[in-house]
TrEMBL record:
Residues 319-698 form the Glycoside hydrolase family 65 central catalytic domain. GO terms for molecular function: hydrolase activity. It comes from Paenibacillus campinasensis. Gene3D superfamilies: 1.50.10.10, Glycoside hydrolase, family 65, N-terminal domain, Maltose phosphorylase, domain 3. PANTHER family: GLYCOSYL HYDROLASE-RELATED, PROTEIN-GLUCOSYLGALACTOSYLHYDROXYLYSINE GLUCOSIDASE. This is Glycoside hydrolase family 65 protein. Pfam families: Glyco_hydro_65C (PF03633), Glyco_hydro_65m (PF03632), Glyco_hydro_65N (PF03636).
Length: 776
């Protein structure tokens, strides 16, 4: 049972949430949503003691490995560090037996600490346990754990086995060779594992300290080295009321780390790991935790969003989103992207999708632009894979992979998915071949970043090349339709993945057109204003020839227009498909319930959408469509959209707000916020939903506060939900931080900028230097 808005502890009000009853059949929920991490690594929050059905995951960003030729590359599950085998008077401790009282597992978002406590009663013994854990933001290779055990009614003999356990896999796929294991000075445990295909060395270490009744006990452990596992066992006798404090310091390094990018030597990595481990071990949990806590203080200064709402859940929801966005983002290393489940589960194999550019990047563009830049540079490095994908498919330029892993990997989408309930066969996944809009989504994101930051250096080094080469892809992708005398884009999957092999998905066509138009504008500008750069790009990409092709084709790209009822067809055949009663699926408790009754081919023949499609188009290219067209399409498509993708609700929320339906917008926001944090106990089993978390921030800042970049200008058009009194957040624009505070009628802006900034508020240009207050 999950508890949000718990009022206790008072100092963590709206900063924490708890599980108040242990449920062995819903382990995955807390494992995912209470995950810890720091962008370098992600640690799923499995309990210390082990349970059937648990997933003990530790992922290190960027360490992709391909299990064999029949599988795609994925983030391997590193050896487990967190498991403790605890025995009391010879009986293995487990919450599945005995009585459990005062149970609470809590994620403290403010300090990024996981805390679990309870009293366990078994065979007449009552024992109090408390566990704490963090993954350090201050020292990125470090995990800290602490357990205290106090017998409450008599003496106990307690043994704890703890170490590093490489007997784990990714749902059965074993990504590692058996490596070397060692214990130094009976204290420092080391386990090395090397990935089977990418040959990445993982060097993991752990060491313990024990205090009994507050005094350090230098006990000799029993040592145990086994297949893929190394551990030590400590045994102590505790009197009634006497407390054992058990600390575990752990360190993780890999040969993929940026420090070793120039060609690592395993011995150097081992040395660094051991030095880091010893330092952490000597300092102890509390001191190292303090470094971590301070690092998080800075995070909250950087990203803080405050909401005064009649519904305290709203404040918690945005903190939860920001917490997860921070722990999933590899801001330390531009060679890495963000996984669709962050680093919180095996879902989507650690791969990056358009989720990053369209749903998460805005958060970084407006609150920490250097991180946005690093994420875009990941895509720049990915040009290598995108170019080979284009070539393999017979196109020019850069065709970005639908799913991306290591930048040079190219396409890594798996080919086969879930069972087809009609045929009993596995369903073919087409997105890796024909879900192509990702290419223009990335170009759009480059443009968005540039417009908001003015980062010319980024554009000169990376951005122009990305926009030009993606436009080259689209020009080669267009298909001439003799009958209609227009260029079509046939056989694609648009954002709505319930429609496969469609022609002229409106989103895809408009975004391709946008991409080519943008390239034309920039190519022209470069030729005149930056001839040296133009020449360099021209010799690399053949820009001059491409410009001829673009001017020839741009005016003849087919852009679906509203029909007599004002509806833009999602694709050539959508509006002719069968209408079905979607009521049972619209009110579903779990997503994808339509597949209990139909298979994908059947769903493909109905007017039903998995997620926002045309609405995405309205959001991204907002100024190309009049309000009445948006409204007619919203009403038409919202009814047919099942929101079976977590990416959907936030977009519909923003559109509903734009169209003036605040109440619906707020309801959709709440539903979006509840995807991970809500009451559904299985929605996050495979990991949290990264894009939806970015979407929560978008609903608040781009939705209710109405922040948009339009044609290079910063607009604000606030419309707060009824339940909200105030909201404030930081906003970066052209290198300056603006503190925004909104109440129901007034807007206050404060900036550190010496320069005058121009904003458009409620449609009117406003000049800002220092502070400004106005009514809206
Ligand atoms: C959605 C995609 C999304 C992917 C990863 C799919 O279910 O339809 O739009 O990119 O999940 O989150």
């Amino acid at each position: 049972m999950m508890h949000y808005n718990t009022t206790e502890p008072e100092e963590l009000k709206h900063w924490s949430f708890s599980e108040t009853e242990f449920d062995p059949l819903a382990l995955a929920k807390c494992e995912s949503i209470m995950s810890l991490g720091n962008g370098y690594m992600g640690l799923r929050s499995a309990a210390e003691e082990s349970y059937i059905g648990e997933k003990r995951n530790l992922f290190i960003n960027g360490t992709f490995n391909k299990f064999d030729q029949y599988e795609v590359t994925e983030l391997p599950n590193a050896a487990d560090i967190t498991r403790l085998d605890i025995r009391i008077d010879g009986v293995r401790f487990s919450l599945e037996r005995g009585e459990v009282r005062e149970y609470r597992r809590l994620l403290n978002l403010r300090d990024a600490e996981l805390v679990r406590g309870f009293v366990w009663e078994y065979q007449g013994k009552r024992i109090r346990f408390e566990f704490r854990r963090y993954v350090s933001l201050a020292h990125k290779h470090e995990i800290g754990m602490r357990m205290t055990v106090t017998p409450l009614n008599g003496r106990i003999s307690l043994s704890v086995t703890s170490g590093i356990d490489g007997q784990v896999s990714n749902s059965g796929s074993q990504h590692f060779h058996e490596g070397e294991k060692r214990i130094y000075d009976k204290t420092y445990i080391e386990l090395i594992q090397t990935t089977t295909e990418s040959k990445i060395d993982f060097v993991l270490g752990a060491a313990h300290r024990l205090f009994i009744g507050g005094t350090e006990a230098n006990l000799e452990p029993k040592m145990d080295i086994d297949r893929r596992r190394v551990a030590v066992t400590y045994t102590v006798d505790l009197e009634q009321g006497q407390t054992l404090e058990f600390e575990k310091a752990a360190a993780v390094f890999t040969s993929r780390d940026l420090e070793f990018a120039e060609g690592p030597r395993l011995d150097d990595i081992r040395e660094m790991m051991l030095a880091a481990l010893k330092e952490q071990h000597a300092a102890g949990y509390e001191r190292r935790f303090e470094d971590h806590r301070r690092a998080w203080e800075k995070v909250w200064d950087q990203y803080r969003v405050s909401i005064k709402s009649a519904e305290p859940f709203d404040q918690l929801a945005v903190r939860f989103a920001i917490y997860h966005l921070v722990i999933m983002t590899p801001s330390h290393d531009r060679r890495m992207g963000i996984g669709a489940k962050g680093l919180t589960g095996e879902g989507y194999k650690g791969h990056s999708f358009w989720d990053t550019e369209i749903f998460i990047l805005p958060f970084y563009i407006y609150t920490n632009p250097p991180v946005a830049r690093s994420l875009l540079e990941y895509r720049y490095l990915g040009l290598e894979g995108a170019r080979s994908k284009a070539l393999q498919n017979g196109y020019s330029g850069a065709m970005y992979p639908w799913e991306a892993a290591w930048p040079s990997d190219g396409e890594v989408t798996p080919e086969w998915g879930q069972v087809d309930i009609v045929t009993g066969k596995q369903t073919r996944i087409w997105s890796g071949v024909i879900e192509q809009h990702i290419t223009s989504d990335i170009a759009y994101a480059v443009w968005h970043y540039y417009m908001a930051t003015g980062d010319q250096e980024f554009m000169d080094s990376f951005g122009y090349e990305m926009i030009l080469d993606t436009a080259k892809f689209w020009a080669s992708r267009l298909e001439w339709n003799e009958e209609q005398q227009t260029y079509h884009i046939n056989n694609v999957v648009g954002p709505d993945e319930y429609k496969e092999h469609v022609n002229n998905n409106a989103f895809t066509n408009y975004m391709a057109h946008f991409n080519i138009r943008l390239a034309m504008t920039y190519a022209e500008e470069l030729r005149v204003q930056k001839p040296a750069l133009f020449d360099r790009l021209n010799s690399k990409l053949g820009v001059e020839a491409a410009m001829d092709e673009w001017s020839d084709k741009i005016g003849r790209i087919y852009l679906p227009k509203p029909n007599q009822d004002g509806i833009i067809p999602q694709d050539d055949t959508y509006l002719q498909k069968k209408l079905v009663d979607l009521t049972p699926y619209k009110s579903q408790a779990k997503v994808g319930s339509i597949f209990d009754d139909y298979n994908l081919d059947q769903v493909g023949e109905m007017q039903v959408s998995k997620q926002a499609d045309i609405m995405m188009l309205f959001f991204l290219l907002e100024d190309q469509f009049p309000l009445d067209v948006k409204k007619a399409n919203y009403d038409y498509y919202e009814e047919k959209t099942l929101h079976d993708s977590s990416l959907s609700l936030s977009t519909h929320c923003i559109l509903a707000n734009d169209l003036g339906d605040r109440e619906l917008a707020y309801r959709l926001f709440r539903r979006a916020a509840e995807i991970d944090l809500g009451p559904y106990m299985h929605s996050s089993d495979a990991g949290v939903h990264s894009a939806s978390l970015g979407g929560i921030w978008k609903c608040i800042v781009m939705g209710f506060a109405g922040v948009r970049m339009l044609g290079g200008a910063l607009h604000m058009n606030p419309r707060l939900p009824e339940a909200w009194e105030e909201v404030s957040f930081p906003l970066y624009w052209r290198g300056h931080r603006i503190e925004v505070h909104l109440d129901r009628t007034r807007i206050s802006l404060n900036t550190d900028s010496e320069e005058e900034l121009t904003l458009i508020i409620g449609g009117n240009p406003v000049k800002l230097t220092g502070a400004l207050q106005l009514s809206y």
